[in-house]
Amino acid sequence: MNSRTHNCGELTKKNIDKNVRLFGWINSTRTHGKIIFIDIRDRFGKTQIILNTDSLIEKGKTLSNEDVISVSGTVIARSADLVNKNITTGEIEVVAEQIKILNVSAPLPMSIHDREASTEEHRLKYRYLELRNSELQNNLILRNKTTQVVRNFLNEQDFIEIETPVLTKSTPEGARDYLVPSRVHNGKFYALPQSPQMYKQLFMISGLDRYFQIVKCFRDEDLRSDRQPEFTQIDLEMSFVDEEHVRDMVEQLIATVFDEVNNVKMQTPFPTLSYEEAMKRFGTDKPDLRYSIEIQDFKKFSDQSDFQAFKNSESVQMINVHNSEFFSRKIISELDSYAQSLGAKGLAWMKYNDSIFESGISKFFNKNLQSNIASDCNIKNGSICFMIADSSEISLKVLGKIRVKVADMLSLYDDSVFKPVWIVDFPLFNWDEDNQRFDSVHHPFVAPKDQDIKTAISEPEKAISKGYDIVINGYEIAGGSIRIHDQKLQQKIFETMNLTKKDIQSKFGFFIDALKFGTPPHGGIAFGLDRLVMLLAGVNNIRDVIAFPKTTSASALMEDSPNTVSDEQLDDLGIGIKKNEKKV
RNA sequence: GGGGUAGUAGUUCAGCUGGUUAGAACGCCGGCCUGUCAAGCCGGAGGUCGCGGGUUCGAGUCCCGUCUAUCCCGCCA
Predict the structure, then answer these.
(1) CA dist A10 to A46, A155, A270, Å?
(2) CA A391, C1' B43: Å apart?
(3) pLDDT digits (tens, 9 = 90+) for A488-512
(4) Mean pLDDT throughout A221-238?
(5) CA A31 → C1' B34, Å?
(6) Residue A466 CA to B11 C1' — how many Å?
(7) Which end of chain A is more exposed for a tag (fewer CB within 10 A), N or C?
(8) Residue nearest to nucleotide B26 (CA to C1')
(9) What does the alpha-carbon distance between residue A255 and residue A248 come to, in Å, rounded to a whole number?
(10) Which nucleotide is nearest to A217 (CA to C1')?
């Protein structure tokens, strides 16, 4: 094959009169009898080809979209009125001298120019065709740029990239594991890693200070638009550090990525919110700070009202939103249903106009109380207040979701603005009602605050951890902590979680053992690369930044996996399949 | 595990309170056309209405079940 001289996106006026040879796909053809226009496309761009001799026109009539061709010809300038400003090569066109058809394409089952013009189901089945779409290609190129910047930055900071095993051991904590049966060890299973957590801590014990890895992780849980069963982490760990050291390094990394990938300058240090404050003000531990709506405690006002339902509630919370005229009965009713679907009894509301509250539940608040509320809560005319009364857990959580929903309805944010925030001072444990035991908020290796080392054992619910999450625009982008490096404390933490000594020994024995051989103080963080790229690309779906994503039920529609395997394969593994009664 | 939305031509959709031959656009096939750039014009082919059952004289439309995708809750860092 003769080699190509240029790609389809690089010819400009500088190349006029040059003889060139291009390779690519036919993006579109426009036949005008004695002249045919062909747009030839590759991942770099599109170039317009002219066919204007009888023999070329004969050949050109047989061409159709997505055929693969090579074209040799001469670059000519377009006259000013014919310039196409939408493409980089719009000032020139190539007059063909020879066209070779390298492969004829069958008609495509979908449009590659307009992704919206196909169902997701269809697009995933023909993902290799959807990946011809420039928007999707640009997302993958952006992803590549991101990992390059990360690698460069971390290398310059003396981090070393080390791979960890993918076939590893199932642990009882955290998410459900993906399991891989062993043929050699009949009846035993590997687990795919949920994260390389213990391996990276072991690297610190080995003295391989400053480890990082861009690594696939696996969790067998139900999916969301920002969750895939296999996803990629930027995982890193450092020795001889405390929270500030890790956070400082991570801020520099994030600022570098946003600058070099998106040309966005981020101010460091990033703002910090304690977990408690985030929950109180935003009803979530991943607040979107691009809009200023905040939750306010309304109990002290509702207690003075005549509204019994509120007076009997443990907690009453309120958000105050401008644009009251937007909230018709219908919209409010939608929000109410949403609140109820999230577990609230209902969503109360009242509008503030002409310096009085009207409609909704306003009649339960007398004039005097109304003016106190307006001035204390800084409510302006043309506002609407939404309130939820329930346990403080539910009222905050649900109002936090209403806050996001309302901001979404009113378009209160800009996707090109990025607001990072650290969430710190997480509780070390939360109480697992179902299993009647304490469970780690992050994972069992997170160190308690120095002053809480004793509390962690005596009053676990009160201990605060050395964990930190970084949240950008309401997405949790990274989470990490300073780890426990004291063997005895690690053992006690496992015991606090109600694991038996036997369990601890069989699941984590090797790790507890390792801790006693001179473990340095250490800590680190793991980024969700997919979510990070999703933000950088300005999309709101993780599938748009992954080449071959899975569906919400964790299947791959293209190759139709997961799927059954042969009886021979099962026999090798010593596995029999129990029939699911419901499905037979 | 639970809730919402969707499934009709190759693709995206329309199809009203059930009614006779299920439409449109794009794509495909054939023809015309020298300046288009998602070209235009003329003609043509193309359908088991996701699947299974039910109600009815009659079902794309109503009912029940089921499958798939998607969004959300639970779950998950």
Answers:
(1) 9, 32, 40
(2) 70
(3) 999 999 999 988 888 888 889 999 9
(4) 95
(5) 10
(6) 53
(7) C
(8) A111
(9) 11
(10) B77
Residue A399 phi, psi dihedral angles, 5° rounding: -65, -30
- What number is the average pLDDT over the span A11-17? 95
Give the pLDDT score at A580. Answer: 56
pLDDT of residue A582: 41
Distance A341 CA to B73 C1' (A): 7
CA A137, CA A502: separation in Å to the nearest integer? 51
Distance of C1' in B46 from CA in A21, Å: 39
Separation CA A130–CA A113 (nearest Å): 9
Predicted model pTM: 0.92
In the DSSP assignment, the letter for residue A362 is G
How many angstroms separate the Cα of A155 from the Cα of each of A158, A253, A335? 5, 11, 49
- Whether residue A431 contacts residue A438, with contact meaning beta carbons closer than 8 Å, is answered with yes
* CB A478 within 8 Å of CB A527: yes
Q: Is the dihedral of CA A331, A334, A336, A342 positive or negative?
A: negative
**For residue A119, what pLDDT is reported?**
82
Cα Rg for chain A, rounded, in angstroms? Answer: 30
Q: Which nucleotides of B are covered by protein (CB under 7 A)?
A: 1, 3, 10-13, 26-29, 31-40, 67-77
This model of the complex carries an ipTM of: 0.88
Q: Note every long-range contact of A314-317, with CB atoms under 8 Å and residues 24 or more positions apart, other chains counting.
A: A314/A390, A314/A391, A314/A392, A315/A389, A315/A390, A315/A391, A315/A392, A315/A395, A315/A396, A316/A387, A316/A388, A316/A389, A316/A395, A317/A283, A317/A387, A317/A388, A317/A389, A317/A392, A317/A395, A317/A396, A317/A399
The Cα A11–Cα A15 span in angstroms is: 6
Least confident of A66-70, A181-185, A189-193, A432-436: A432-436
What's residue A579's pLDDT? 67
Calculate ∠ Cα A518-A520-A521, nearest 5°: 140
CA of A111 to C1' of B26 (A): 9
Calpha distance A261→A263 (Å, rounded): 6
Find and give the residue nearest to B66, measured CA to C1': A583
